[in-house]
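Service request form, structural biology core

Requester: graduate student, group of Dr. S.
Request type: structure prediction, single chain
Budget code: on file
Notes: please return the result as structure tokens.

Sequence provided:
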Amino acid sequence: MESVFYFLEEHLSGELAVFLTAWLPFIELRGAIPLGIKLGIDPIQVFILAVIGNIIPIIPILLLLNPVREFLIRNSQIMKRFFDWLYNRTIRKSDQVDKYGALGLILFTAVPLPTTGAWTASFAAIIFKIKFKYAFPAIVAGVLLAGVVVTLMSLAIF
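Core staff response, request fulfilled:
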């Protein structure tokens, strides 16, 4: 992860580095906000860039993952293994989503721990067949809550 941050810092403006880091699975805004704060960017600007960057991938994941997955697993054993791994990993992490539905997505996304962000919540929404009209606002709410928590923690650290 350090090498990703180093590359982004060296080759992009700080603001663009924050925005693009928030797009990355597993890193998301949990890495983008500390990066922006460390780079000396205004914390409110960092929060906005990271939240928007983290929200953008949610829409294509929720709308396109199933059709793309179906196509890929029909044509590739490697992709079938990958999606089986992703499914099993998401199931292990998403008990609260199964139990509480859209509210569980908010909580799951809001907890600022590795592998509990918007990407995994989007996969969980698909697995548990939560409709887009419920999943998207719930995940966005979770991203906003996580953004507040991570920003406050980052300000305390830096």
